[in-house]
Amino acid sequence: MAATNPRSLSVFLLIAATWVAAAQAATFNITNGCNYTVWAAAVPGGGARLNPNETWSLEVANGTTGGRIWGRTNCTFNSTGQGTCLTGDCGGVLVCNKTGTPPNTVVEFAMNQYNNLDFYDITLLDGFNIPVQVSPTYNCSTVKCAADITGECPTQLQAPGGCNNPCTVFNTTQYCCTSSADGCGPTDYSKFFKDRCPDAYSYPMDDATSTFTCVGGSDYRVLFCPSF
Ligand SMILES: *[C@@H]1O[C@H](CO)[C@@H](O)[C@H](O)[C@H]1NC(C)=O
Ligand SMILES: *[C@@H]1O[C@H](CO)[C@@H](O)[C@H](O)[C@H]1NC(C)=O
Ligand SMILES: *[C@@H]1O[C@H](CO)[C@@H](O)[C@H](O)[C@H]1NC(C)=O
Ligand SMILES: *[C@@H]1O[C@H](CO)[C@@H](O)[C@H](O)[C@H]1NC(C)=O
Ligand SMILES: *[C@@H]1O[C@H](CO)[C@@H](O)[C@H](O)[C@H]1NC(C)=O
Ligand SMILES: *[C@@H]1O[C@H](CO)[C@@H](O)[C@H](O)[C@H]1NC(C)=O
Ligand SMILES: *[C@@H]1O[C@H](CO)[C@@H](O)[C@H](O)[C@H]1NC(C)=O
Ligand SMILES: *[C@@H]1O[C@H](CO)[C@@H](O)[C@H](O)[C@H]1NC(C)=O
Ligand SMILES: *[C@@H]1O[C@H](CO)[C@@H](O)[C@H](O)[C@H]1NC(C)=O
């Protein structure tokens, strides 16, 4: 009887669809541990203002590739969610649908890939603005970049609110590894980043020490300013 009622049926289908999505999605809880406001951003996912100690909970679908989470600083947005940020701005909108402007520290992820493994990392290839940590709820590696990179940034890489990657500043094949034939390796600048954040990508071919995996099905916590 109830199932023949179109309203009951659509409610049932909605609940069923939500259950299936929940079973296949990973939850990313993104928390602001900084003592200043951070405007969190995710692609896919959007964006949210986080006062200190606030959390934004994001569902990431099974099979998502090319996922990115980062924090934006010193933003002003109006009532329709339009404005600008000092770092990490994604085209002037609160709810991002494209990547942030460097410098920004970025958490990257790809879910349920080869052998149902999740891949995750922190990259400094777009520079650094906020310290960040990513920790799976499963027993897999916690990865963090918690050094004062902005405060120690080499003069030529300094930027308002952060520290640029040399590729952003100089745009040369050596720093950007645009051709693998260049035998691209570490540079003095990439070593500056790697010395301070050994778990994070410091140059494009830095995979061996910078990419992490976890069995698919884990949830994740992303924490800005983990040292606080
Ligand atoms: C993700 O999808 C794949 C393929 O459909 C499936 O094998 C796997 O169990 C799913 N993982 C999770 C955590 O839902
Ligand atoms: C935030 O923390 C830093 C470092 O501990 C401190 O210097 C600064 O005064 C704090 N700012 C606020 C607004 O609490
Ligand atoms: C931070 O938030 C958590 C969870 O909402 C809460 O339990 C904790 O007391 C808060 N800490 C501070 C210092 O406000
Ligand atoms: C950015 O915001 C922080 C914290 O609110 C503040 O201390 C700093 O002066 C701001 N920077 C700029 C360039 O406005
Ligand atoms: C928000 O800012 C945008 C871009 O500056 C502007 O076009 C829009 O009219 C503003 N909306 C409101 C409600 O102020
Ligand atoms: C991204 O968001 C902006 C502003 O909300 C919108 O105008 C634009 O169409 C969106 N682009 C895509 C690819 O969804
Ligand atoms: C977590 O994994 C490590 C390394 O594989 C292992 O030594 C440890 O016993 C595991 N801890 C738990 C609680 O499963
Ligand atoms: C970087 O240099 C390449 C050519 O070497 C050029 O095609 C590209 O547009 C440059 N990128 C920027 C952001 O200037
Ligand atoms: C994320 O936060 C929600 C709400 O506080 C909580 O129920 C859930 O257990 C958290 N998940 C993770 C992975 O921390």
UniProtKB/TrEMBL annotation:
Entry annotated with the keyword Signal: yes
Pfam families, sorted: Thaumatin
Keyword check for Manganese: no
Keywords: Disulfide bond, Signal
Sequence intervals crossing the membrane: none
Signal peptide (from-to): 1-25
InterPro entries with a match to the protein in the record: Osmotin/thaumatin-like_sf (IPR037176), Thaumatin (IPR001938), Thaumatin_CS (IPR017949)
SS bond partners: C34-C225, C75-C85, C90-C96, C140-C214, C145-C197, C153-C163, C167-C176, C177-C184
Similarity-based family: Belongs to the thaumatin family.
Name of this chain's protein: Thaumatin-like protein
Organism: Flemingia macrophylla
